[in-house]
């Protein structure tokens, strides 16, 4: 579902006269079909919105914060020069005033929680039963070969959603330490009219209606920025594009001693790209090209933020469907000796890391970067522009619309409080991440990004998502996962439940590996004939990028024509009861998923289940996420 017909990398012919391609762009319309383009917009005229924070109700489940969050269709204006758009969003019930739900129509309110204090959420689906982008749903249902998952041999293709379902949803807490029944995996989806996917599950079923589900979250994480978003089977991409995403902040009271910017000086930035029709409505163009043409931050196109001359903490989430961003802070040439403002990286997906001074960084979909940016040396009236450069939508060889400017920080507010009393970044004493050292016997598990035909479906290890789990991991064990990417596009891979560290990357002979892997697939997949990775390595291991090193991650950039290795220290899901709710802890076997976080790739089958088994279990099981189905 991901773009125009450019950028193919043609590999040698496979064993059966087939052609193997490294390509992640699919188009569904002919070249002469007009692609919508956003009308010209004046930049930096709309102030940056800040998502409201949901208010918990501690009385429903003793010892836990409780929220009710409803998915609804509404209206949102993305720019002053655009009319209102129909959008989807999350709304939180206000326990102090039920008539005033908390939200803004697009995206969702922030859930701000305390480390190790559990959260219980009831999710309610009140969306329409016809999709906002129904043409995409229809194309998938009608078997469009460039949108509908096509299984590689010898598997049979299965439709991703039932023939009578145009809208269904499920909420995934991205990056959380969560039992599988509350994880929000695709086959746990439920529709506005109460249809349930095969692994639908809810805690406390006596308290829910058919269009609702209750999930429990442990919040047993380091302080960090997570997020929640739609994860529905077969339509995650269009559901998130319509607006179904929000921030989930885990706070540790001990962080208050660190001297970090707080309150109005801690600013979340949800980065997305969107295209708009002339009337302001959302245009989904990723059936025709890669990515969209306009930057949107916290729901506004080209916004500005008025700032004081002091340090700010910027918590950045790339919530784009497909786009990688390479970000820097540009300043006028007469302000600094160099044209960019340096900043400090203090955290990534899973929380704090040792401070690192940087000039720019590459962020893929679903990654989070925690920055300290110091505006104190900027003269009053200075405009600092957040820009994007050298980052095609499908990094590094995409051909989607280029976006060079994103938002502006305008140093126009006088310094409040007399002085900036936060700790200078070079003196910060942050919790660090101890390196995970692999041992000689550490289990290695390969995940091959495989595409068996031009513009076709990508899978892991040439196995469709809907096939039962084939990967069983002992509880408490450590593993190295090797993502083998023989194609020309990078993929952001997200593993549910765990944090990991990036070990290294290593170049491979991609054409030879792809050809031999094709030969193995079409030759019957005999285990003894499977290509051995070591035979295709073409250079020494490459250390992690500096911003990844010694960082806790849940999403990793899997660069093209390389193997990317991550190490997971311990596969141990939460087994304790949450908020005294029966059945809320993990039971073995426990199945989770991992997938590409280019959402169009995820929908088109670049996703697989994996299963944690008890130390004494040698078992097998199917994937899915509900009791009785792999749990």
Automatic annotation (TrEMBL):
Q: Enumerate the Pfam families for this protein.
A: Cu-oxidase_2
Q: Which family does it belong to?
A: Belongs to the multicopper oxidase family.
Gene3D superfamilies (UniProt xref): Cupredoxins - blue copper proteins
Pinpoint the Plastocyanin-like domain residues: 473-612
Annotated region (Disordered), positions in chain: 612-631
Please identify the protein, giving its name as recorded: Multicopper oxidase domain-containing protein
Matching entries from SUPFAM superfamilies are given as:
Cupredoxins
Residue ranges annotated as compositionally biased, kind Basic and acidic residues, are: 615-625
PANTHER family in UniProt: BILIRUBIN OXIDASE, CUPREDOXIN SUPERFAMILY PROTEIN
């Amino acid at each position: 579902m991901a773009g125009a017909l450019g950028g193919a990398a043609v590999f040698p012919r496979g064993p059966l006269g087939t052609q193997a391609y490294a390509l992640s762009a699919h188009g569904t319309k002919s070249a002469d079909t007009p692609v919508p383009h956003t009308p010209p917009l004046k930049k930096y005229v709309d102030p940056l919105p800040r998502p409201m924070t949901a208010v918990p109700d501690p009385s429903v489940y003793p010892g836990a914060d409780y929220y009710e969050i409803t998915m609804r269709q509404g209206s949102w204006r993305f720019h002053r020069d655009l009319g209102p758009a129909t959008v989807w969003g999350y709304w939180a019930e206000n326990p102090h005033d039920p008539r005033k739900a908390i939200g803004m129509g697009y995206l969702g309110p922030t859930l701000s929680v305390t480390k190790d204090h559990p959260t219980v959420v009831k999710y309610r689906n009140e969306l329409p039963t016809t999709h906002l982008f129904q043409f995409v749903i229809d194309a998938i249902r009608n078997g469009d070969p460039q949108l509908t998952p096509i299984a590689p041999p010898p598997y049979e293709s299965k439709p991703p959603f039932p023939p009578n379902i145009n809208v269904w949803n499920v909420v995934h807490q991205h990056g959380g330490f969560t039992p599988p029944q509350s994880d929000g995996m695709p086959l746990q989806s439920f529709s506005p009219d109460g249809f349930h996917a095969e692994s639908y599950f809810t805690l406390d079923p006596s308290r829910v209606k058919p269009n609702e589900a209750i999930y429990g979250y442990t919040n047993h994480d380091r302080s960090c920025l997570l997020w929640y978003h739609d994860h529905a089977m077969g339509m995650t991409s269009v559901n998130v594009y319509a607006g179904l995403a929000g921030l989930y902040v885990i706070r540790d009271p001990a962080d208050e001693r660190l001297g970090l910017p707080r309150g109005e000086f801690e600013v979340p930035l949800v980065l997305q790209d969107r295209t708009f029709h002339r009337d302001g409505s959302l245009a989904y163009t990723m059936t025709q090209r890669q990515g969209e043409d306009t930057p949107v931050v916290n729901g506004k196109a080209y916004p500005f933020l008025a700032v004081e001359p002091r340090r700010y903490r910027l918590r950045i989430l790339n919530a784009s469907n497909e786009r990688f961003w390479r970000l820097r802070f540009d300043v006028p040439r007469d302000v600094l000796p160099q044209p960019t403002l340096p900043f400090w990286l203090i955290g990534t997906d899973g929380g704090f890391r040792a401070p690192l001074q940087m000039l720019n960084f590459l962020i893929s979909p679903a990654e989070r970067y925690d920055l300290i940016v110091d505006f104190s040396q900027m003269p009053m009236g200075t405009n600092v522009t957040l820009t994007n450069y050298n980052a095609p939508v499908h990094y590094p060889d995409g051909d989607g619309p280029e976006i060079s400017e994103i938002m502006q920080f305008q140093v126009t507010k006088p310094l409040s409080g007399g002085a900036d009393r936060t700790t200078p970044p070079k003196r910060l004493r942050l919790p660090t991440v101890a390196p995970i050292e692999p041992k000689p016997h550490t289990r290695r598990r390969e995940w091959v990004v495989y595409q068996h035909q031009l513009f076709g479906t990508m899978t892991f290890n040439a196995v469709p998502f809907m096939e039962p789990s084939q990967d069983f991991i002992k509880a408490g064990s450590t593993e190295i996962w090797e993502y083998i990417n023989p194609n020309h596009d990078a993929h952001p891979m997200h593993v549910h439940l765990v944090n990991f560290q990036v070990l290294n990357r290593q170049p491979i002979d991609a054409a030879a590996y792809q050809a031999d892997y094709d030969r193995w697939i079409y030759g019957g997949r005999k285990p003894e004939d499977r290509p051995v990775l070591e035979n295709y390595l073409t250079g020494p291991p490459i250390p992690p990028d500096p911003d990844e090193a010694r960082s806790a991650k849940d999403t990793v950039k899997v660069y093209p024509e390389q193997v990317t290795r991550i190490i997971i220290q311990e596969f141990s899901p939460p087994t304790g009861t949450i908020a005294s709710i029966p059945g809320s802890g993990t039971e073995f076997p426990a199945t989770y998923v991992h997938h590409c976080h280019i959402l169009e790739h995820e929908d088109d089958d670049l996703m697989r289940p994996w299963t944690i088994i008890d130390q004494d279990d040698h078992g097998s099981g199917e994937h899915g996420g509900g009791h009785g189905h792999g749990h």
